[in-house]
Specification:
heterodimer; A: about 200 residues; alpha/beta; six-stranded mixed β-sheet; 8 helices; B: about 650 residues; Rossmann fold; six-stranded parallel β-sheet; 21 helices
Chain lengths: ~200, ~650
């Protein structure tokens, strides 16, 4: 890791989840952490649906030399970070490939079609098996429960960032995380978010 | 104030396209900015509004886009640099004034930013605002990345002053709402004094009165054409038009906007850098003909890559016909021949497909067996995630009552919808209640028309719904029309305390404006009463009272009735993270399928805070999702959903 990263240029990350899970903030923080290393970062976002329970996706393109398209080409994701497990599958269908790596929150959020009984939500065992089958490496953590334990489910995204840093897939450092927070939060919020980051890092 | 509005000259920052546009305006010394919220444009005015005090600007959320353009133009007439911002649907609203403005001209630099939404990712149409530049004859700039979004906006003010006319900068969702790196420039510390000069002759558009007299139009248009010619000359040497590729490309791709990023990536994915040239145009109307001649003479084949309409493609074909004696005949590929789709947004893969077809180079994104397996898994593993109202959203409760009242009335009444989150009520999330859905204010306008069809035998009760911001934007004239013509309708104003869908921008009904200053709120019930309407105000979370009010309104056959349903948006800063009720399921009372309720709460009401527990065969509260609005407790026929007020 370090100076030679990324080996693939551009390195393509997809952060996915559902509206209200803090997808956009997670993508901005990871983007800023990598940008601080002098890498060129482009983030594509679709958040028109984010207020209303839809699937939300951020595309991060990391390059040592250039700005890239805000949409990753199909089948070209190197890393998928999912705030909701079935969303990981939805993304892998379009952007997955045999060498993709996946970090997933295991807490489901049921779509409205499941709530009203028209569709069924897969079991966690099936979801894990399928994600493993479609990826080269996969990590699973219950970041929502960890966040509830810290007092607020909305911290689930930050717990996932902490876990992501601990996997070592990306060159993410805690000091950079702190710097990214300090640009947008008050000191008491920063402290809570650092706790969440550490909680995530300790799971991996 | 956001960091991008504060950053020093030379700072390199990761910023959203809309922040880059706002920063470009600041660096140009903009003094007045006005707009109406609309995805994907809203962050431009938001950022400038937050910076307005520190940077000595006047920034407002206007009542609609036409007024925003007029407010900005007044500043230009008074010699100040001014910006008007809107999404593409707003261009249509502003277009009446825009033609007058463009034929007359401007004084202080006047820039109009339109953010289009290819693919209608958060819009109810897929409009292309670029043809306005050609139709109304003013220059058009299209940034191709984040740095250009800033630099081009800044330069647009210079161009506007060089030609004394409005200049349009067109962005798209994938730039406005994407983020990339931008190196900041200097923000000038200029002192300017506003003064509207009108002492000169009418035909002097810099010193005379700004009056579009019929007898003067011919001269104004002659001047306008001179301005356009001057812009074309400046465009010939613009650094915003770039070429990368071989000296004599086998295929020349001509593109603009976010499509330049898709095109560059597609060429890279195919490894065709030595065969394909990429001409990126930032100045897309009027076209720089000499520049085009230089590039077109060195190739035989051209692929035009752009989103929504084949705007550049058609203009380039016309240019190629003009240049034909010197460049020869070219073969054009693009939307007209079906190489690229006419509908929806583009992406790198669609451009790869077009290129691989033309050059006959095969491309495989992933191994076929992986793709097949991923599709199989997704069919079972990724259930469709339809959009729905948020947990605790007042609209779900409102449409529950509206739908119920219409069913109880039994005369096949219907609701004309409007633009906002509540448009979702055209789907099962809102019980399929909305039956028409078009532009801002069209619900009330259509209702006004339906409300006069009684003489032709129409007996259905007619409703229109609108949000509080939409009410001021375009519903008021339609309501005046309905009142004046005695249309028999009920307007329902879903007042959730702000322009919620686009991020809680203030509107005339609130006590604060864009800059955070206190202003007198215009009360919707008072305005409606002044129009002669019978008005009721209800809390939609009181389902019983709301339904009864609707039934009364439907019985009243005379003229315009208005029901204002007041309850703050569940995501509003005042409500977020606070629960009024702690919810629980009483499992003694919830007997699931045996109840006879047919799972009313999960199957019909469908709040995401409720889950159907398959093992227990009963309802369950999702503690993480539920916001504690308590409405479901009032609906459960068995009284099994319990609510306890949170201290």
């Amino acid at each position: 890791m370090g100076e030679v990263w990324p080996l693939q240029d551009p390195y393509n990350i997809i952060i996915t989840g559902t509206g209200g899970q803090g997808n956009v903030l997670a993508s901005r923080i990871i983007g800023e952490m990598l940008s601080q290393r002098g890498l060129h970062v482009t983030i594509g976002e679709t958040f028109g649906a984010s207020q209303r329970g839809g699937s939300v996706m951020s595309h991060l393109r990391i390059s040592s030399c250039s700005v890239f398209s805000p949409q990753i080409p199909k089948g070209r994701a190197h890393l998928v970070v999912a705030l909701e497990p079935s969303e990981a599958i939805r993304v892998l269908k379009i952007y997955g490939n045999p060498t993709v790596k996946v970090l997933t929150n295991t807490r489901p959020i049921h779509p409205i079609g499941v709530i009203c009984g028209e569709q069924t939500y897969p079991s966690l065992e099936d979801l894990k098996r399928w994600i493993k089958e479609l990826s080269e490496a996969a990590w699973f953590i219950d970041s929502t429960t960890a966040a509830v334990n810290l007092g607020n489910p909305v911290l689930g995204n930050v717990i996932l960032i902490g876990a992501l840093a601990a996997t070592g897939v990306l060159p993410l450092e805690r000091t950079q995380f702190e710097a990214a927070l300090s640009r947008r939060m008050k000191p008491d919020q920063i402290l809570l978010n650092l706790l969440a980051y550490d909680a995530g890092a300790s799971v991996i | 104030m956001s960091l991008s509005m504060k950053a020093q000259e030379g700072a390199r920052m990761l910023v959203m396209g809309n922040e880059a546009i706002a920063r470009g305006a600041l660096e140009a010394g903009v003094r007045v900015a006005a707009g109406y919220p609309g995805t994907p444009s809203s962050e431009i005015i938001e950022n400038l509004a937050q910076a307005s005090k520190a940077r000595n600007l006047y920034v407002e959320w206007s009542v609609n886009e036409k007024v925003a353009l007029e407010v900005a133009s007044a500043a230009s007439y008074a010699g100040l640099r001014a910006l008007a911002v809107m999404k593409m649907v707003g261009m249509n609203v502003a277009s009446d004034f825009l033609l007058h403005l463009a034929q007359y001209g401007t004084r202080g630099g006047m820039v109009l930013v339109s953010c289009d939404d290819p693919g209608a990712l958060s819009s109810s149409n897929e409009g292309d605002s670029r043809p306005y530049a050609k139709m109304m004859e003013f220059p058009l700039l299209e940034p191709g990345d984040f740095q250009e979004a800033k630099d081009m906006t800044q330069w647009a003010f210079d161009l506007s002053e060089a030609i004394s006319n409005v200049v349009m900068v067109r962005s798209v969702t994938r730039l406005s709402h994407a983020s990339g790196e931008v190196v900041m420039g200097e923000i000038p510390q200029t002192q300017v004094r506003a003064r509207f000069t009108f002492d000169g002759p009418l035909l002097n558009t810099l010193t005379g009165p700004a009056v579009n007299q019929p007898w003067a139009i011919r001269e104004f248009r002659r001047m306008q054409h001179g301005k356009l010619k001057k812009a074309a000359e400046l465009f010939e040497h613009s650094p915003f038009n770039t070429y990368i590729g071989p000296a004599r490309p086998e295929l020349l791709v001509i593109t603009s906007s976010a499509c330049q990023l898709y095109s560059a990536e597609a060429i890279h994915l195919l490894g065709a850098e030595r065969r394909i040239g990429l001409l990126k145009l930032g100045t897309t109307w009027p076209l720089p003909l000499q520049l085009l001649e230089k590039h077109l003479r060195l190739t035989d084949k051209v692929l035009v890559v752009e989103e929504i309409l084949p705007f550049m493609e058609e203009n380039l074909k016309a240019a190629a016909a003009t240049l034909a004696p010197r460049i020869g005949v070219k073969t054009f590929f693009g939307k007209a021949d079906g190489r690229l789709p006419m509908e929806s947004e583009l992406n790198p893969d669609l451009v790869v497909a077009a290129l691989s077809g033309i050059l006959e180079v095969p491309y495989e994104s992933v191994p076929q067996d992986y793709l097949k397996r991923a599709e199989e898994i997704a069919a079972a593993g990724a259930p469709v995630r339809a959009l729905t109202f948020c947990p605790g959203c007042p609209h779900r409760a409102s449409f529950w009552s509206i739908h119920d009242a219409i069913q109880m009335d039994g005369r096949n009444g219907f609701v004309c919808g409007d633009i906002g989150c509540y448009a979702l009520a055209a789907s099962p999330s809102g019980f399929d209640t909305i039956k028409t859905l078009h532009s801002m204010g069209s619900g009330a306008g259509l209702a006004s028309g339906f409300g006069k069809l009684g003489v032709f035998g129409l007996t259905q009760p007619i409703f229109a719904v609108c949000g509080d911001s939409t009410f001021y934007h375009a519903v008021m004239p339609a309501l005046v029309n309905a009142a004046h013509n005695k249309a028999n309708i009920t307007l329902i104003v879903l007042d959730n305390g702000g322009t919620a869908m686009t991020g809680f921008q203030p509107h005339p009904g609130l006590k604060v404006n864009a800059a955070g200053e206190e202003v007198p709120p215009l009360d919707i019930p008072t305005l409606c009463r002044a129009m002669g309407a019978k008005v009721e105000v209800c809390d939609p979370f009181d389902v019983e009272d709301t339904r009864r009010t609707f039934l009364e309104m439907m019985e009243d056959q005379q003229g315009v009735k208005v029901v204002v349903l007041r309850q703050l948006c569940a995501l509003s800063p005042e409500k977020r993270g606070k629960r009024k009720f702690q919810m629980a399921v009483d499992h003694e009372l919830c007997v699931g399928q045996k109840c006879g309720c047919n799972r009313l709460c999960t199957r019909v009401f469908k709040c995401p805070g409720l889950i159907w527990d398959r093992e227990r065969q009963a309802a369950r509260i999702d503690e993480v999702i539920c916001t504690g609005c308590g409405v479901c407790a009032t609906l459960c026929p068995a009284g099994a959903l319990k609510r306890r007020e949170v201290e």
